[in-house]
Amino acid sequence: MNREELSKLNERISEESQFIEDIRQEIGKVIVGQRYMIDRLLIGLITGGHVLLEGVPGLAKTLTVSSLSDAVSARFQRIQFTPDLLPADLIGTLIYNQKEGEFTVKKGPIFANIVLADEINRSPAKVQSALLEAMQEKQVTIGDSTFVLDKPFLVLATQNPIEQEGTYLLPEAQSDRFMLKLHVDYPTESEELEIMRRMANTKEKPKLKAVAGTAEILSARDTINELYMDEKVEKYIIDLVVSSRNPDRYGMSHMRDLIKNGASPRATISLNLAARARAYMEHRAYVTPEDVRFVAMDILRHRISPTFEAEAEDISSESIISDLLSHVQVP
């Protein structure tokens, strides 16, 4: 891509991506702060990558997801996961129609554009598998019929990291299907003061309007494929992922006994897509190493497993990723 073509693409993307600012502004009418979470949810929306949100109760995870769906004109379903939930409660089932004398399909709540799986770790493995199959295949089979899910289709799941009683941990192979895993933290003091002033009253909370539609989302998904990514940035993504599998090659022999499993090729693909989405959200037609670093922690934290020795020394996957980011040469 020559300079003139890049300049024209930059102008087009700058204009097309303005709806991102509209969504941010609309969500800001309800949500105070949480820019970290909002930006990553938007990355998931643009790329079609599912997002797993982890944080203690009361951090507005559910409210942020529902606010995002309000700001985007898309069908939204919230599913509260419980230990007695069945796969049929999620994907649907066959119901016998006595009048017609035949079985008819009753579609479940998964047939939506944005699905909020609230407290996903409270449901047993067979329910989690039904959801994750739909996430991967983008289709659902009920009886003899297979139904392709509408586009866009996005699963945003939450889980509580502090209460493990009565929960079913997501296996690593299944959590790997989430593009991003977010650690949602407490707000700052000034943000919490604003939250208190907004919410500590009995007034009806503001209703958000749709400022973007599915057409803009699907158009953005096509457009990010056109963004320019230099070979050096591509090599940087490869180096980050490979260093998690073979740290010795990158002068990090001290990490050899800290990493049980490195990141899979799915991490490479996700880093590329998420970096492109971040550049798009910043109204740019080219990807920089900073875009990769912006999303690296959320792409890799659930794909790199610390060894028992690392956990015994209180070394988390986040610590390992920070080490990788500081050692791998930035182009």
Quick description:
This protein is α/β, with parallel strands linked by helices and 331 residues long. Helix content is 46%, strand content 16%.
Which features characterize this protein?
single chain; 331 residues; alpha/beta; Rossmann fold; Helicase, Ruva Protein, domain 3; 2 domains; 5-stranded parallel sheet; two-stranded parallel ribbon; 14 helices
Folded structure, characterized:
With 331 residues, the protein is α/β, with parallel strands linked by helices. It folds into 2 domains: 200 residues, P-loop containing nucleotide triphosphate hydrolases (Rossmann fold, 3-Layer(aba) Sandwich); 100 residues, Magnesium chelatase subunit I, C-Terminal domain (Helicase, Ruva Protein, domain 3, Orthogonal Bundle), CATH 1.10.8.80. The protein has a 5-stranded parallel sheet. The model has no long low-confidence stretch (mean pLDDT 86).
Helix-strand layout with pairing:
Blueprint: H1 3-16, H2 18-27, H3 35-47, E1 51-54, H4 61-71, E2 72-73, E3 76-80, H5 87-91, E4 92-97, E5 102-107, E6 114-118, H6 125-137, E7 139-142, E8 145-148, E9 154-159, H7 172-175, E10 180-183, H8 189-199, E11 212-213, H9 214-223, H10 231-245, E12 259-261, H11 265-281, H12 289-300, E13 305-306, H13 308-312, H14 317-327
Parallel strand pairs: 1-9, 1-10, 2-11, 3-6, 6-9
Antiparallel strand pairs: 4-5, 7-8, 12-13
Helix pairs in contact: 3-4, 3-11, 10-11, 11-12, 12-14
